[in-house]
Amino acid sequence: MNLRIKHNLEIPANEIQWRFSRSSGAGGQNVNKTDSRVEIVFNVSDSKSLSPYQKHRILIHNDVKLTNGCICIAVQDRRSQYQNRQLALGRLTLTLRELLKQTPKKRRVTMPTRSSQKKRVDSKKKRGELKKNRQLKIDF
User: Fold this and answer.
1) Do residues 92 and 42 touch, judged by C-beta distance below 8 A?
2) Is the pTM for the entire model greater than 0.85?
3) What is the mean pLDDT of the chain?
4) Are the C-beta atoms of 73 and 93 separated by less than 8 Å?
5) In this predicted structure, what is the pLDDT of residue 31?
6) Which helix (H) or strand (E) holds 19?
7) 14 φ, ψ to 5°?
8) pLDDT digits (tens, 9 = 90+) for 31-76
9) What is the full DSSP assignment across the chain?
10) Using an 8 Å Cβ cutoff, are 31 and 22 in contact?
11) Is 86:75 a contact under the CB 8 Å cutoff?
């Protein structure tokens, strides 16, 4: 089953490696018998579905721990292996979407126009006058 990341990006199932092991945590005696912990390994460097630009974008990020050019995600939240597999695929999808998201353009610093400066000063003066008119006027 292929993993759909975006509408134009799909990772084939043969590029994702699975590892299973015994999980710690909930499960009672069953935890000692079943391999419910799931680990996904996706090799970014060897992937044929990613473009060189996408590979570069993923590899330069410091947010994700890359081990030898691979994204490793381990899940042992649920009791069953199937549920952990679904969670691991979801986390891999989310991670790749986040890494491949375009960075927003930087705002170019501009100076305010004369008219906007004048409007700002006028509104401040108007507000000051309003407050001044509220004060009690005592004549001596």
Assistant:
1) yes
2) no
3) 86
4) no
5) 63
6) strand 16-21
7) -75, -10
8) 667 778 899 999 988 888 888 998 888 888 777 778 888 889 999 8
9) --EEEETTEEE-GGGEEEEEEPPPSSSGGGGGT---EEEEEEESTT-SSS-HHHHHHHHH-SSS-EETTEEEEEE--SSSHHHHHHHHHHHHHHHHHHHHSPPPPPPPP-PPPHHHHHHHHHHHHHHHHHHHHHS-----
10) yes
11) no
Query: Among 35, 47, 39, 37, which residue's Cα sits nearest to residue 19?
Result: 39
Fold of 3-100: Double Stranded RNA Binding Domain (3.30.160)
Collect all residues with Cβ–Cβ distance below 8 Å to 20 and sequence separation of at least 6: 35, 36, 37, 38, 39, 81
Give the model's confidence band at 127: pLDDT under 50 very low, under 70 low, under 90 confident, else very high. Answer: very high
How far apart are alpha carbons 44 and 16 in whole angstroms? 10
**The predicted structure's pLDDT at residue 32:** 67
* pLDDT higher than threshold 80 for residue 29: no
Higher-confidence position of 24 and 90: 90
Rounded to whole angstroms, the Cα distance separating 58 from 52 reads: 10
